[in-house]
UniProtKB/TrEMBL annotation:
This is Polysaccharide deacetylase. The keyword Signal applies. It comes from Endozoicomonas elysicola. Residues 72-344 form the NodB homology domain. GO terms for biological process: carbohydrate metabolic process. GO terms for cellular component: extracellular region. Keywords: Signal. It is found in: Secreted. Residues 249-318 form the Ig-like domain.
Amino acid sequence: MILSMIPALSQASSSAVILQYHHVSDKTPRITSVTPETFKKHMNYLAENKFNVIPLVDAVEALRSKQALPEKTVTITFDDAYLSIYTNAFPVLKEYGFPFTIFVTPTPVDKNYQKFLSWEQLREMAQGGATLANHTMSHDHSVERLSGETEEQWLSRFRQDLEVTETRIQEKTGQSVKMFAWTFGETTPELRAALDDMGYVGFGQQSGAAGEYSDFTRLPRFPMAGIYGVNDFGIKVKSRALPVTTQSPDSSLISQDNLKPELELTLAKGDYQKKQLKCYASGQGELKITWLDEEMTHLKTQANKPLPVGRTRYNCTAPSNSGRHYYWYSHAWLRLTDEGKALD
């Protein structure tokens, strides 16, 4: 039971930070990689600063049940089942005794692709503290529809892929935790509704801590790759969830007639400095914030210039009243090509 796995609370929090890694290598694309040296520094930071590193399933259960977590609670995840997780990350994780989750794409594992893990290695890591979860069979763009495909057919294809992937992981490892990471962090309200209907928890690639108000079909994770997490790792792992109770629009998709989308947020009370809240857009810097009420609980913000094809994020942050933490919220936007395709 989760109650026995979480230590007595000296300082309680309603947030958990979920870290997302792909490659742990200096020979893979920088945009999806951290070097082994950086990964070692990250884990050493967590250990030396006495972070509470727990399994992802336990963090999710605590958040959903509104059970207080210890301050500085972190969970570690990897996407895609790359070989470098086994060769470069697993020895470090074993050294520190940290549990972790791998979101597995079975097709390259089944086909013995060179840079991917084997089922034997995945089972070995499962015995050493890894949770194995769902990341689609072949890492396709779930948001894309096939030519002539109806919405019902599209959602049926997504559901079938989810079931086939979960069955394959269970057949090969014995695990079935019904947790799912969106490929490329891309999703839509229709896909999320299907995921929720099937009893899964979903995870995105938008930054921020997860909290009691988070959407459990697209929980935030901090991407750790390239420039991200190298110089500001300590700030991110100490962050807390900005208490966003409602968001509009609900979708990430933007259309040609709305290339500077407006985001509206409603905030609950919390230990953050409202007057210091700032929002930023990828590649655009700081955005203007307009408060829509005197109590400063409802705001809107908008891009300064049209968003490009691909993925963009609005990040909103505010310091805590003590100045020791940042409260963080991120929304991912997705602009498809004119042909309705998503970029890799």
